[in-house]
Each structure stands twice: as C-alpha cells, then as structure tokens.
C-alpha cells in the first residue's frame, strides 16, 4: 500500500485498503520491541518507535517530553479510569492522544490485550475530529510497509481505522446519539472545553457509561475553559475518584508576556515542541498592543488561563482591571471624602462594600458571607475550589452571622474599616432602600446621606460608563485583591437595542457583588469630581 493510497483524496477516497484476512497470525513489528510490564511503560516504549508525522521534526523518531511522560504514567496508572490534561495550545495534545490511540488499537499496552478493541476519538465537530484522524494516519504512514498492510482505512462518510484483528478506531463529533451502544476500551475527548454544553455533556456521559463495559479508560484533553462552570473546569477542580489531573496553568494576574508563566503553560516550548519561547513572547506583546479580544484569546489559548474570549459584553477585560492594581506600598493615601458603595446580598449570598477616595483614586473592597455553609463547602458548591478560603486568609472576605448576613453588624464592620473617617455618602440599590436605612441606623450612620441607584438600564448604563472612564483614565488604584479580581472576571453587561448596559453575571454561580459595589462607588466619585464648585453668592445690603 502506498502513502498516496492511504491519504487518497481522489477517486479512491472512501475505499478500503489493507489485508482483510483476520485468520492469520498478526506480526506487527513494533509489538516485538515493546519493553515494560505496566501499561504506562509499554505505552512509552511503543510511542518511541513512532515517527513524527508532520511539522519541522517530520520523519524523525518521536521523542517524548517530560510533561508527556508524566501524563502517560499518571493516566495509565492502576485504578485510574480518567486522565485529564490541560495545557496551552500547540503542545502536541492531539498528537500525543493520537499516538496513544494507535497503541490501544494494536493492543500495545497490555501483555494480554482484549480482543476487538474499540477506540473512540471524540471532538466538538467533524473538522476537529479530522485533525486527530490525520495524526493517526500520519503515524501509520511512518510504519514499515508490512505493518501498514495490517490496517484498513475508511475516510468517506466515516473516519475509521481498522486493525487486522478486528479492532476499530473511529472519530466522532459531539452528538450523544452517535456513541450509544458502544463499548470502547479507550476514549479520547479532544478540546473538551470547546464543546457545546448540552451536546458535549450528553456525549461525555454516553462515552463514560460505555467505558464501564470493558474497563476502559478516558483521556480528556484541552486548553483551559473560559470559566469555572465549564464541565472541563469541573474535571480539574473537582476530580472524582479514579481521576488523574495534570494542569499547566500559571497563577492569575501576571503580565501576558511574563516568560516564566508562559513556559509553565507551554512546557513543550523548551523541549522543541510547538512554539518557541521567543515566538510566545512576541505574540504576547502583539496581543497586549491590540488588547480586547486578541489579548483575551491569547490568555485563554496560549497562556491556558480561564479568561473569557467573549469581550463584547464583559464589563472590563482581565488586563484592563490588572492595569489598576498597584503595589500596596504605592497605593494612594486615604485623602479627601470617602464614597461607600454597598451591595447587600440576598439571604444566603455575599454582601460587599467598596470604599473609594475620588481625590486620590484609592479603592478598597470587603466581602461577607454567612458562616453556614463554611467557605470550603461554599467554594466547592460554586465551583471555585479554595478561592474563598484564600480571600479569607488575605482579609478580603469575612464570615458573619449564621445563615444570613446581618445588615447592621455588616455596616458596623464597614465603618470600622474606615478607621474613624465618616463617609461622605453611601450609594446602594434603591430596591433595598428600607434595609439600608435600618442598617445605617444600627451602625450609627443615620446622618450620612444615602444615594440610591438602580441596576437597570437607566442608572446602570451611566454608572458603568463612568466607572469604565475612571478606570481607563487611571483614576482607580487598588492593591492586588482576589475578591475584586474574580468579581470583575465574572461580571458582564447586558446591552439593550439602544446600546445601554446593565450589570449581570457571566455564570450563574459567579459572585459579582464586590464589582457592583465598586461600580457604584467609583461612578459616584466621578460625579462628585465633575460637579462644578459652588461659589458664594454676594448680596448687597
């Protein structure tokens, strides 16, 4: 069989090639050279015999990088049913999984493999599945001619590779109906974070249920999802028993062109896989210069960060907010009148307060949860792992009350944080006016003016625009705050036909209370600065 026949796109496309005699003894040369007893060591031994199918290293023997060997050992370890890998784009995720798929197809991982093995390669759509299929065919094309004859290739309406012993590898798109009844021994879920939520979850559930029939394994690989609520993020944050997780995600809040964190998300760059460090830095600088969706996409795809790539409706991008963060030693002083923005949460949700000094641009924030449930349990329920506990350790998030946050003590704590300075005014939601008045009286703030604002199209659009303008003009300075950083990451705006904006959550479990309080405080501060100074009126006797 020639390489042209294997990859034919002409009149032979869709036909089958290779021997169909399944009664003969299979002599696959690569199996004779495999060393090791464990599936992981046998897999590593098998992959080292393959040749790179494409790229600048095409035709050379496959050399596994350190992060690839680590994933293989973890994902194929005993009692592991699911291996999850999150890494930046261009680090050979799909190529690695295609090589493992070929190994499972020929029975390379077990000394006594199951008969008629089945490999499923699932992707969001057919085009994405074809990429994996081409990698698989590329590995086959690099085998000796005698070994190539053991495979049957179908690339018409179906994308399938059949081994001479009846084992089958097929590529499918994210449609749950296409896998019902299957019993795969290995399933690869490629770029899982990009799957459509409903269809993707249906396909995943169908695949995982089928794996149980034959003690199969699943490999879930992808770059980071844009949010914590994505199913792929939940695999990383809350892995069930029998799951191996390997995530290459740098700490949040770092500059996009920070080389160390770029290499953390792209470990293949220093081992000759994918993009070079120089290219990554150059692309980061380009993304920074362009800003907007280009920067968000670079952070999500190349830095493997959980950043939404949909920037048309975000309140502000991650980098726009990070531009306001300064070293605590460089934070402006608490000079001039203080504006207090407050967002009272519901009976069991977060309440938040923001302090803003418009004359210096200093901004501070405080969040409060009720004590029950605990921060660890609440973080697990909201899909944010130990984030709330980190905020609590930094003094940005408190617990107060049992099942609800008492408004009076909450406002009293807010006043205590001002260290004796009386706020010039308090800004809050007009629909919670009665609760505000009671809380202010309980905290001894009855003499402080209360300004109510709506979160709808009218007041909300004005406040959002004033907040954005102050932020972009450099009139907002804040010490690094996880509370504010993640609040703004979850904040989006809904836009009406007239172009007015109002604040909303990017995800149902998002906590944007601190962002809402900050918008109220900064917008009121901007109004105060813009108001003309009153001149004394002179009267003649």
From TrEMBL:
Coiled coil: none annotated. It comes from the Bacteria. Residues 295-524 form the Terminase large subunit-like endonuclease domain. Residues 84-224 form the Terminase large subunit-like ATPase domain. InterPro entries: P-loop_NTPase (IPR027417), TerL_ATPase (IPR046461), TerL_nuclease (IPR046462), Terminase_largesu-like (IPR005021). GO terms for molecular function: endonuclease activity. Pfam families: TerL_ATPase, TerL_nuclease. Residues 1-20 are annotated as: Disordered. PANTHER family: PROTEIN YMFN, PTHR41287. This is Phage terminase-like protein, large subunit, contains N-terminal HTH domain. It comes from Pontibaca methylaminivorans. The lineage of its organism: Bacteria, Pseudomonadati, Pseudomonadota, Alphaproteobacteria, Rhodobacterales.
